Amino acid sequence: MSETLNPSVDDFAEMFEASIVDRQNFEDTVVTGTVTAIEKDMAIVDVGLKTEGRVPLREFSVPGKTNTIKVGDKVEVFVERVENANGEAVISREKARREEAWTNLEKSFEDEERVDGVIFNRVKGGFTVDLGGAVAFLPGSQVDIRPVRDASPLMNITQPFRILKMDKRRGNIVVSRRAILEEDRAEHREEVVKELDEGDVREGIVKNITDYGAFVELAPGVDGLLHVTDMSWSRVNHPSEVINVNDTIQVKIIKINPESHRISLGMKQLAPDPWEGVAAKYPLGAKFTGKVTNITDYGAFVELEDGIEGLVHVSEMSWVKKNVHPNKIVSTTQEVEVMVLEVDEDKRRISLGLKQCADNPWENFAEKHPIGSVVEGEIKNITEFGLFIGIEEDMDGMVHLSDLDWNRSGDDAIKEYKKGDVVKAKILDVDPDKERIALGIKQLDGDPMESVGDLRKGADVTCEVTAIENGGIEVQVGGENGPKSFIRKSDLSRDRNDQRPERFAVGDKVDARIIAVDMKSRRLTLSIKAREMAEEKEAVEQFGSADSGASLGDILGAALKEKDGQ
C-alpha cells in the first residue's frame, strides 16, 4: 500500500514522459472539449490533460443561425498549442470548423454533390458564403439565372450550392447558386416536357419578345420559342405587330428536341394553310390586284391575300426602266395590278409580273417605226460596242461600231461622238421579245457599194486616186460617195518598171478591173495590171498573134485604131 501511496521517482518520470507524449499528439488536431465557464466574451473549454483554453464567443456563432453556448456543452476545437506562457491551451473553434468543413467539402466536390451554405457578406465581384466553417466565394454571375438587382432576400439563409473549384493550399473555394437553379429547372422542365406531345395545342403567356420571335411560357419555368415566321401565314416584319408581352395566346407544339428539350411553337398552324390549292386559285396569265409588302434589291413582294405573297422580280417590273432599284418603281403598301407568271405550290412560290399589265412599248414602237425609218435622239452612253441613243419613253437603241461608217473602222468613227450629242439614225431591226432596237448611222448615206451600180468580178471601173502610199494607191470608185479600195503596188501595172506608186498623183483617174467582191465586208479588190493583161489578151485574139510575125505593138496599134474608128 505504501508503494502505491508513495510512488517512486521512476514512476514520476514515467508519468511525466507519457504526459509529454500525449501533449504532442494533441497539438494541431481537433479534439472534443467541455465548456467549463463563460467569462464576458470568452468561453473556457477543458480539452483534457487537465488543460483549459479560451475561445472567443463569436467563434461559436454561425451565419444564419442563432447559437447560444452554455456551461457543460461539448464542443470541438482545434488545439494549436497545449500550453502557452500562461499555462493555458491555445485553441480555436473556427479552425476546428474549417478543418472539418474542408474534409467534408472535398468529399462533396469529388462526388459532385450539393453543399449547404449561407451567403453572409457582399464583396467585390460577388459574395462570401459560409460552408459550415469554410468561407467560399460566390461570383455575382453565379447568384441566379437572371441578373439580381437586390440580393438581400438571399442572404443569411441556408441554401444549396454547387462547388465549382477548390484549392486547399490557397484556401480558395468558388461556388455557384445558379448551377443549382439550372439543374432544378432542367429537371422540372424534363418532367413537364414528358407530358407534352408534338401537335398539342396549349395556352401560354408571352414572356419575352425579340426580333426573331417570342418566348411563351407553357408552364412555370417551361417556355417555348414562337418564331416570327410561325406567327402568321402573312408577312410579319416584327413580332410586336402580332403579340405583346403578357398576352395569353393559343399555340401549337411543332417540335420537341428530345435531347435539349427545346420546344418550337406555332400560331399560324392553328389556321388553314392558304397555300393549299393555290395553283388552281391563281392560274398562269391571270391578273390580280395586290399590296406591296416588302421591297428588296431584287424585286418587290406583293400580297395577293392573307398568307399568299408573290415576287415581282426587278426584270418584270418595267418594260423600259432598266438598272433602277425597285423602290423607284413601286412603294410599300401601294396597290398594284400583277400577272401570274409561275406557281410552285411545293416551294410556296408565285412569280408575278408588273409590266405585263401595261402595254408593251417595244411592240408599239415596232408598229409605229418600221425598219428603215429614221429617228433622232441623244447619245445616252458610249461603250466598247457602240452608241446607245435615247429614242422615246426611256427606250434606247444601239448603233453598233460596224454601223457607224462605211469606210472607216468603228474604233476610228466612234471618236467623233460624245455623250449628249443629238444624232439621227436609221432603224435596222426591232425585237420586242428581247427589248432591243438596232440602229445604224452609216445607213443614212446609203450603201456606197450600191451607189456605183453593177459591181461584179471582172467588170472594169474608173477610179480616182485619193492617196499615195509606199505599198500602193488608195482609190475611190464611182465618185464622192462610192466605195474605196486599195490597189497594191504589184497590181499597178503589167510592166514592172511602171509598178511605182509615185507615178500617180492624187486626183488622177485610172481604170482598173474588179478581181474580187466581198459584199459582207464591203470590200473591192482592184487591179490595173489585170485590166491591162485582159486587154492584151483580147487584142491578140482579134488582131493576130506574135507567131504570125506581127509585134505586140503592131497588134495593140491595130486594136486602138479600130477602137478609134468605132
UniProtKB/TrEMBL annotation:
Which GO terms label this protein's molecular function in UniProt?
Answer: mRNA binding; structural constituent of ribosome
Keyword annotations: Repeat, Ribonucleoprotein, Ribosomal protein, RNA-binding
Pinpoint the S1 motif domain residues. Answer: 28-94, 112-178, 199-268, 285-355, 372-442, 453-529
Pfam families linked to this entry: S1 (PF00575)
Cellular component per GO? cytosolic small ribosomal subunit
What GO biological process terms does the UniProt entry carry, in alphabetical order? Answer: translation
The record's PROSITE patterns line, in alphabetical order, gives: S1 (PS50126)
Role: Binds mRNA; thus facilitating recognition of the initiation point. It is needed to translate mRNA with a short Shine-Dalgarno (SD) purine-rich sequence.
PANTHER family membership: 30S RIBOSOMAL PROTEIN S1 (PTHR10724), SMALL RIBOSOMAL SUBUNIT PROTEIN BS1C (PTHR10724:SF7)
Instruction: Spell out the family assignment given in the record's similarity comment.
Output: Belongs to the bacterial ribosomal protein bS1 family.
Protein name in UniProt: 30S ribosomal protein S1
Per the UniProt entry, what species is this protein from, by scientific name? Answer: Aquisalinus luteolus
The encoding gene = rpsA
